[in-house]
Amino acid sequence: MSNTYLDQLNDIQRQAVTTINGPVMVIAGPGSGKTRVLTYRIAHLIEQGVNPWNILALTFTNKAAREMKERINTTIGGGVGSSVWAGTFHSVFARILRYEAELIGYPANFTIYDTQDTKSVLSNIIRENNLEPKVYSVNGVRARISSCKYNLISPKAYTENNELIQEDHQRRQPHFQKIYKAYMARCRRAGAMDFDDLLYQMFILLHKNPNDVIKKYHHKFRYLLVDEFQDTNFLQYQIVRKLVNYTNSPHNVCIVGDDAQSIYAFRGATIENILNFQRDYKNAKIFKLEQNYRSTHHIVQAANEVILNNKRQIQKKIWTDKGKGEPIKILQTVTDTEEGKRVADMILEQKTRYHLQNKDIAILYRTNAQSRSFEEALRSHRIKYRVYGGLSFYQRKEIKDMLGYLRLIVNPNDEEALRRVINLPKRAIGKSTVDKVSKIADSNNVPMWMVIENIDSQGFSARATNSIKGFVKLIKKFQKQHVTKDAYELAKIAGTESGLLKMLGEDKTIEGMNRMENVQGLLDGIKIFVDSEPVAEEEDKSLATYLQSIALLTDQDTDDKSDDKVTLMSVHAAKGLEFPSVFVVGMEEDLFPSFMSKNTIDEMDEERRLFYVAITRAELYLTLSYSKSRYRFGQVRYNESSRFLEEISTENMDVSIPFSKSSGGSTRSSVSGAGIRKYGTPMRKAKTAPAASSDPSFKSTSATDLKVGQQIEHFRFGKGKIQSIEGAKGNEVLTVNFSGMEKRIMLKFAKLKV
DNA sequence: GAAGTGATGTTTTTT
DNA sequence: ACATCACTTC
Questions:
Q1: How far: A415 CA to B2 C1' (Å)?
Q2: pLDDT value, residue A257
Q3: Dihedral of CA A477/A482/A485/A489: which sign?
Q4: What is the pLDDT at residue A314?
């Protein structure tokens, strides 16, 4: 062991690493060696005598945590990296909650509901309460509940808050509070926590502090590090404060982030946290990492130019000494199919010309649905690729079905699992029977399992009673073997004796065989889990531990670096990654920036930060592409190029023809011959026609029709009062107060009722 | 209760 | 275009 790692750091990085006592804030621009600082800081702590198990590092993805541990191991050796508590907020808290669950009235083997489960619970509640599903959209309600949780508003507090109740009336969702309350109650009686609960309940645990449990964690986590702090929400920050603030605390907390890369506001993240941190820890040392070690000059410059269009940000200027590099290429095509082909062509050419491998190249897009044209083109070019995101393995129907049985064995109160498998394969327990069970459960506030366990004399038909008894018997039989059999054997038994495997095996269609294969893959995965050496955080090989370990996995955690494949992913998913060559595709108005984000300045700024993240993933070569037309909603739509393209000066762009020749084969898309038109600064058509809203009474409004103090109604935010009108003609910005929530709205795009 | 059929809305991003 | 959902018929 030596201090040589300190020599690998620049001055500011070194200070950020060696300032180990007291609060520290590191503002780290893209490619500025943030991960290096974090890992060396931990290594340094350990070398200074801090026990690795007294360090808690909270990251944004499992992958980041894993890599951090590995890098600590390679830096100081001895495998100490594995003893550091490093993980996502969600996974670390899930682990703690598993120990402490009973203190807050949850079973230790609580289930984690994923988004699908949550939506299903909500749609049941909405249906059973005879609420209009169009008024109470599952997605909308889910988002609002989520936002309640990360603002620490309990159902009770919600009901008591007049402003919120008012707001619901204006939003024409007066029964929202009822849904929220019912949802929380159902989760609790099912012994289930959703993703937000992992944070919310963690806060409750520390706040209510039964048995003085907080002392244990104050004692345990002496040094706290938080990565990607710009993407934490209010609740996460409150938990951090709970862990750091106590009498005589040394406030050993280090946050690392970059306000310019905050891209999760839609999920409650707030840059306010960075400002609040400075306010809450006045003696915090602040280090700004501004040297970019990743990208060449043109790319860094373009990024700076783009982000300059956002008004509110922490002042910094990213620079590089990597040399000018290649200017950014712009690719214009006529159709989305052609976009796929041209990008695939360019990939082939880059591979030869620059000696790149597939894994050096990434295609980044705004929405996952865009992957298709690229997949097809890459396949026909025989280029290996891997698509990240979208539906993950564990979210596939057949996998969730199989897991349903396993979940039920561990926690029979898990109602989503129960609903999923009670009639799968068909055992004559139909929808009306399940509804009836649910009603009885609801009115007695007991889990559905308890109702079906005691199905006699509840007024069910003899046939239904019998079927249910058979099902209960089946599950109980599995449960009995929970103690004697390991997870793999149990899963195999459940799959066979439930008839699920047989049912899947009988489907001889291609998709059916695929599903069977997936379930086999799941079983193999469980086998690997059972046979593998226990990792620090897995204290046993039980089914419960297995389920917990996969609940928070994402696609990217099954990442295989050794594979030489082109990466396809959303820009969000690309955060923290870098590639020698990057294609940012679909650079069109209404796509990137998304049409969903055109309502407010804040949303548009977030889109721009997203674009900033996208271009700063590139080390050497950056290509931005857009298509003049694209299939959307099953029909062709014509697009204008993204406004973001205009924000990059021609100095940093290749203004010549971006690519020598169109690919051979295709005739269809080159009929017009416009596909390889000469390219200058992309032009946008003069007017932007706002997409027709579903409700025609909401429409674009001219500024002359509006004045300060006027009541208006926005198609999404409801009724509000105009506070001010600013900006040049045709570009007015309204500040509108929507019952306590102030929004800045771009009149150009807004759909309003006066 | 099961299976088949037509209608409808749905798409931003993710732990 | 696609999937989900409500509605029909057996």
A1: 23
A2: 93
A3: positive
A4: 80
